[in-house]
Amino acid sequence: MNTSSSNIxxxxxxxxxxxxxxIAERYKTEFTYPIHSHLEYELNFTEKAAGVRRIVGxxxxxxxxxxxxxxxxxxxxxxxxxxxCTSKEIREITIQFxxxxxxxxxxxxxxxxxIHKMLEKAQKGLAxxxxxxxxxxxxxxxxxxxxxxxxxxxxFLTILYELSLCEDAWTLSSSSFAKIGVHSxxxxxxxxxxxxxxxxxxxxxxxxxxxxVGMTPVSFSRFFKLRTGKNLSDYVIDIRLGSATRxxxxxxxxxxxxxxxxxxxxxxxxxxxxxxxxxxxxxxxxENYRKKKKLV
Length: 296
Hints:
Elements: E1 9-11, E2 21-28, E3 36-38, E4 41-47, E5 53-56, E6 59-62, E7 66-71, E8 78-81, E9 90-97, H1 104-107, H2 113-121, E10 126-127, H3 130-143, H4 149-164, E11 170-171, H5 175-178, H6 187-199, H7 206-212, H8 217-228, H9 232-250, H10 255-261, H11 267-278, H12 282-292
Parallel strand pairs: 1-3
Antiparallel strand pairs: 2-9, 4-7, 4-9, 5-6, 5-8, 7-10, 10-11
Helix pairs in contact: 2-4, 3-4, 7-8
C-alpha cells in the first residue's frame, strides 16, 4: 500500500502553557480556513451560518443557524466550508484547551464523570442539539468578555458540565476513520467488535459471531442491535467505510484497490453504498479533501 505524506494543516494555536484555555470570537462574512487538525481540544460555536458544510473526519453535514461541536482528538481533521451559506453576519466562537486541563487525578473524580465520558466520545467529534446550545448560550455569549480569569474558567467548566448532561448529542466521524477504538460495556459486544475490527477485510458471517459469544444467530442479532443501535450488516459496513475514507484521504491507492482492501467484494456495490452513506462518490470525497488541503 502506497501512502502519501499528509497535507493536512497542523494548526499551532496561541494557547499558552500558563492558560487554561484560549478563546477567539469572530464576526465574519465567510469561512476560508482550510481543513486542519491540532493538538488542543476544541469547542466551536457558530451562529447565523446556515448552509455551511461542516466536515469532521468522514462526517459531512450542512448546518443550520446554530452549531456547536466538541473535538478532542489530535488527529481528527475538520473544517467549516462556506458552501451554500449567504449570511454576512456569521459569528464564531472557538475555545481551545489542552488535554491536560483536567489532570488525571482530577478528571477521574466522581463529580467529573459525565465530562470525562463526553471528552472520550468527542474523540470522534460530538455535535450538540439546539436544546443543549440554548442551555449554555448565555455563558458562551459572555465568556470572551469575562474580565476575571478565575471566573472565566469556572464559567467554561460549567459550560462543559452542562453539555456533558446532554443525552441527544451525536458523534460525527466513524471510529475507524478517527482511529479510535470502540469499547462497549458488554463483554460480549466488545468481543464481537474486536473480531470485526480484526477481520472486516474478510467475509463476516452472522453464525460465526453468534457462536463466538455462545448465542443463537437470532438471539445474537437482537442482542447486538439492542446494545449498539445498529444491525450487524450496517455496523460492518460503517467500519469498512470508515477505513475506506481514511485510505481515500491518506493514500494514493486507486478506488478499486481501496474497495477490495476494505472488504467490499464488488466495486459498483462499494460506489453505491458510499454514495448513499456519504452523499457523494468516493472520487468526489477524495477530491473535496485534497482541494482543501494546503501545505504550510
